[in-house]
Amino acid sequence: MKSLSEFPDAALRIFERPPAPASGDLNSVYLIGICGTGMGSLAGLFHEAGYKVTGADAHVYPPMSTRLAEMGIDVRQGFEAAHLCPAPDLVIVGNACTPSHPEATFARENGLSQQSFPEALAHYFIRDRRSLVVAGTHGKTTTTSMLIHVLRSAGLDPGFLVGGVMQGYATSYSVGSGPHFVVEGDEYDSAYFDKRPKFMLYRPSSAIITSMEFDHADIYADWNDYREAFRAFAHLVPAGGLLVLCSDAPEVMDLMHYTEARVRTYGLNPGTDVTAVDVRADEQGQSFTLVASDMTPVEMRLPMSGRHNLLNALAVATVALDEGITPEKLAQGLGSFLGIKRRQEVRGEAGGVLVVDDFAHHPTAVRETIRAARERWPKRRLVAVFEPRSNTSRRKVFEHGYSTAFDDADLAFLSAPPFRHNDKPGDFMNMDAVTRNLNERGVPAAVQRGAEVLLPELLAVIRPGDVALIMSNGGFGGLHEKLLATLSSR
User: Fold this and answer.
1) Most CB atoms within 10 A, among 4, 139, 323, 417?
2) Is domain 345-489 classified as CATH 3.40.50.10320?
């Protein structure tokens, strides 16, 4: 990645691109990799704004393919240069594209207007609106979704784009008619021709940074490289804007030295600007008293479990209050937030076993998710099932982190990831070492290769009253449905 001094002004530009057309001159948009979560949502934004949208992907499959079809968006299977004839007004190049990608190559060699995902989002939808950006290693999706819901609950109509499916919402995006645009600020790179993190292009008026831990080892060289990206992002928030930092995270707090913006802190540490006291947890969530300067303490209810979700709610409260939301409307918004899919989502109960789905894949996210489940269901036996699937979660750098992440589980089942062509043997995590460490720490653990092999072992030990907490950032071979189906037939 680039150094701090290079981030704000420069990008790795392999070629000169024609300028993107102005909104009034834009009619047709083509997205390379349209079925990705973010790209599909961006396609929906362009469609909602009235543009003609088409695109292609290597694998066209539900649910995104179904959603795009329902909007009447033409999606092509596979990538061919012919898909760009006649030429669209704008080509959006997904960050999975390499310089040799057939459609990206055709667009480049024929001088078509091209933008990355974050460029297009900023250029056509954020523009001069109040951009509220949520960044951080953990909690981005939940915090962004919660902020969107609080604003909408207060009678505002923000534009938004979030990388998850919000419960109770038909889409994960909206053009909106209000002054705000709320966006999840991802630190992953933008495109093969622009290696800046996505969040560097979102023009934040105000921003939240929830946490900082080394991640995305496939694009960041080390912790210092990763940290520089967040320092650069903090520097983007203007002097009149607000930078909201988690006081429980020392590395996040250090970012106050890299910004000219106003800084407010949230967390559970003494001396924090916005905090929670008298926290009471139950199976339906948690209640707490919100304490902030210049306001009378207010009782709040959050229908989500876990300390990490309490911190997410405090982050949202800090921004919402600064944007003029009253404490009463804030309480109404937090209390009616239904959460997002794949975050402590109860998929069903069969044979007395509660099956819960979660997107957790970083060691810290796994640890906090298990802790939240323990808090939510304290009287049940907790069986944690985990698949390290992402490029980063498979790496040896996280071997120790996973070895300590399951301490609050009663049993642990791990799926060993297959070795991919771009994996390096020396960097690949040793799952046998992880399970051995777990057993030594008093958490009975076993590892198998994939859902099909793991399922029979899981069924042999699971019993009525258990919670099966299944964690993966992918489909995990349909393990949730297979487990429920087999339990139902017993």
Assistant:
1) 139
2) no
